[in-house]
Amino acid sequence: MKRYYYIYALLLSLLSACTNNGEKEAEMHLQRAESAFNSRNYNEAKLQIDTIRTLYPKAFNARKAAIKLMQQVDLKEQERSIVYLDSMMLIKQAQFDSIKGSFILEKDKEYQEVGNYLYPTQTIEKNGGRSFLRGQVSELGEMSITSIYCAGGAIHHSSVKVINGDLYAQTPNTKDSYETTIGGRHIEKADYKLGDDGGVIAFIVTNKANNLKLQFIGDKTYTTSMTNSDREAIYKLSELAKTLSSIEQIKKDKDEANLKIRFVKRKMEEQSSQK
């Protein structure tokens, strides 16, 4: 008899769920979601709302209320993100303000929207007639290095290798190169962006305290030594790049959060006008 009783109770439960389309059960999850939302536990609120969406497709009233609650959750999460991003921007901006005086910004405001930061020891005026590796960072935090060769005849170099004993890093061949002659001196330059530099920038940063060899590779190979000031310049510029790129990422994240807020508010207004 007891066995039949349990079967009967189960059938009644299933019949009840079918009759009310799961509204009662869905309403229970909705109440949990609202409680979590009021406690600012937005992850739990979303979990309860997802349960309603997944398990109770016919609980129309609860699902409708869950959609409205999810919009409020999305709105609060994006508003919280903006508060966090604003606090991070203050930190990163302070970091930038504390180091920017160590660099020189080269920018022709008439022709350039974005300028480049150089280290003082690597400006063109101080390095005429020298073959070396120069670093630069754009105002948007994009770092690159330029190999400048002017040691004699043309070698048409398109790659550089930095060597520390048996270890080395080498750039891929770049198409971003050019050659000219100034005052009878042949000059070659080639640019390599961070990420397309074969790990050369990271290698220099890691080995900045070591004596490094620099090779210009083209039809021929020219080898010289990296000076202490060049290694230090690229290290300092890499730190600047991290700070500026973080600032740019925060700006992008904040723009995205504001875009989501405008979208959610517009949807809420549309639903309110349809009542």
Percent of residues in beta strands: 15-25%
Q: Which sequence of SSEs, written as H and E, runs from N to C?
A: HHHHEEEEEEEEHEEH
- Going by helix content, strand content and strand pairing, the class is alpha+beta
Strand order of the main beta sheet, please? 1-2-3-4-8-7
Integer-rounded radius of gyration: 31 Å
Q: Roughly what is the average pLDDT, rounded to an integer? A: 91
**N-to-C terminal Cα separation, in Å?**
53 Å
Helix count equals 6
Helix proportion? 40-55%
The poorly predicted ranges are 4-14
Number of DSSP strands?
A: 10
| Largest sheet geometry | 6 strands, antiparallel
Overall 3D form: elongated
Describe the structure.
The structure is a single chain. A 6-stranded antiparallel beta sheet has the order 1-2-3-4-8-7, covered by helices on one side. Strands 6-5-9-10 form a 4-stranded antiparallel beta sheet, covered by helices on one side. The chain has helices at residues 2-19, 23-38, 42-55, 60-99, 200-206, 228-273, and strands at residues 104-106, 116-118, 132-138, 143-149, 159-164, 167-170, 177-182, 185-193, 213-217, 221-225. It starts with a helix and ends with a helix. Helix content is 51%, strand content 20%. It is elongated and about 85 Å long. With 275 residues, it is an alpha+beta fold. The longest helix is centred in the C-terminal third of the chain and has 46 residues, at 228-273. Helix 3 (42-55) runs antiparallel to helix 4 (60-99). The protein is built from 6 helices and 10 strands, in the order H-H-H-H-E-E-E-E-E-E-E-E-H-E-E-H.
What is the strand and helix layout of this fold?
Elements: H1 2-19, H2 23-38, H3 42-55, H4 60-99, E1 104-106, E2 116-118, E3 132-138, E4 143-149, E5 159-164, E6 167-170, E7 177-182, E8 185-193, H5 200-206, E9 213-217, E10 221-225, H6 228-273
Antiparallel strand pairs: 1-2, 2-3, 3-4, 4-8, 5-6, 5-9, 7-8, 9-10
